[in-house]
Amino acid sequence: MYQYLIYCILYLSFLIAETGTDLSNRIIIDGYSNDFTSDEEVINEIHESSSDSYWGEYNDVKGIKVTWDNTFLYLAVDACSWDNNVMLFIDVYDHYGIENMSEVNAWQRSFKFYNINPDYFVGTWDTNDSPQFWKVQEGGALQLEWIQNIETFSTFNTGSIDRSMELKIPWADLQVNMQPITSIKLLSLITSGDDFSGSPDCAPDNLGGISNNSSQMVVLDNYVEIVIDGDNDGNPDLGILPQERATFHKTPPFSPLPLLVENVLFEDGKVFSPSLGEKVYFELETNRGSEFDVKIFNLSGEFIDFSDDEIQTLSWSWDGRDQGGEVVPFGVYILYFIASSGEISQKETVVVVN
Predict the structure, then answer these.
(1) pLDDT of residue 17
(2) Rounded Cα–Cα distance for residues 90 and 88 (Å)
(3) Which residues of 8-45 are buried (b: 16+ CB within 10 A; e: fewer)?
């Protein structure tokens, strides 16, 4: 009876697993993630459909698992890859990271990041068992360095649907100048092995959806964030359930909503006289939250200036002057609205009179 009770306690402790001092005997980096528990699933079938990939169920991200101990962060991506790549992006620090994956010096792909700028990523391909771990040069966005001492393993094998990519990262390798790690943001995706290819599926889903065109730029703007150091003592918290520490920028499932400009409003019309001290005031109405920059050009395509932000969101003004502060000549000028995410742009014209 006593032995049976001990067995039950051990069994239950495995089913409900907390972060602990040393998990290296439980989490084995072998490309099979069944040693993680359900409490360590931060993305699972609730958030990620098995049929949402444009390339079918054999090229699909299924989930992400996370746990940690005093020394290591343990990660797993459950996915299926048939002759393609699987990538996991990790964002630790907010002040730098990858912005455009097509501009980096390795693993160039047609991704732009918005709301998240990864500092690290790990990538592998079908039948490769040694995923590559890369870091972004501190303070930068373009230069990547392959870190070869990170323990990784993957078992993706041409359509096998129960395989994983796993890695075990020392906290010391994630820290920059001994800065404490408060939280991490994660996202994973499928992509092809070709440079400048896009993605048929990401987890969590991005806000605007993904095109079936494999070369189209993909905007990756959603993530799952896991709080690591909730008490701010500079150390990873132990004795907690990672799933309870996970939140999303936008929680899936949801229907993708491509960003659209619904209206451009001009407060006092589109004609104004800078020489009389007048300005043109305008604002955008969009179908979902985003940020925009507004550039001003003349009809010859010459850049004139940026517009000035107003207090209200997505509202701007222009005083009819160029970058040097001189009033521009009489004529028609183009307001060029560009979404910070890179998803869309919009043009409007205004008229400057004397």
Answers:
(1) 66
(2) 7
(3) eeeeeeeeebbbeeebeebbebebbbebbbebbbbbee
Q: Summarize pLDDT for 236-249 with one digit per residue, the tens.
A: 999 999 999 999 99
> What CA–CA distance (Å, rounded) separates 352 from 318?
11
Query: Which residues, 6+ apart, have CB-to-CB distance to 106 below 8 Å?
Result: 134, 144, 146
Contacts of 167 (CB under 8 A, 6+ apart): 29, 74, 75, 76, 88, 122, 131, 133, 150, 151, 152, 153
Contact 22, 72 (CB under 8 A): no
The arithmetic mean of pLDDT across residues 66-86, rounded, is 97
Three-state SS for 59?
coil
Q: Per-residue DSSP letters for 6-48?
A: HHHHHHHHHHS----S--TTT---SS--TTS-GGGEEE-TTTS
Asked if 88 and 78 touch (Cβ cutoff 8 Å), the reply is: no
HSE, side-chain direction, 13 A CA sphere, residue 148: 0
| Ramachandran bin of 287, using left for φ above 0, alpha for ψ from -120 to 50, beta for the remaining angles | alpha
Q: Which of 19-23, 95-99, 291-295, 332-336 has maximum average pLDDT? A: 332-336
| pLDDT for position 353 | 96
CA distance 53 to 189: 10
**At 3, is the pLDDT very low, low, confident or very high (cuts 50, 70, 90)?**
low
Q: What is the DSSP string of 230-258?
A: TT-SSS---S--GGGGEEESSPSS-----
- Sequence-ordered alpha helix ranges (H) in 236-336: none
Taking the model in full, what pTM does it have? 0.84
Q: Is 88 helix (H, G, I), strand (E, B) or coil?
A: strand
Omega of the bond leading into 253 within 30 degrees of 0 (cis): yes
- The total number of residues shown for the chain amounts to 354
Mark 112-146 as b/e (b = at least 16 C-beta within 10 Å).
bbbbbbbbbbbbbbbebeebbbbbbeeeebeebee
What is the predicted pLDDT for the residue at 213? 78
204: preceding bond cis by omega (within 30 degrees): yes
Q: Which residue has the tokens 């905007």?
A: 219
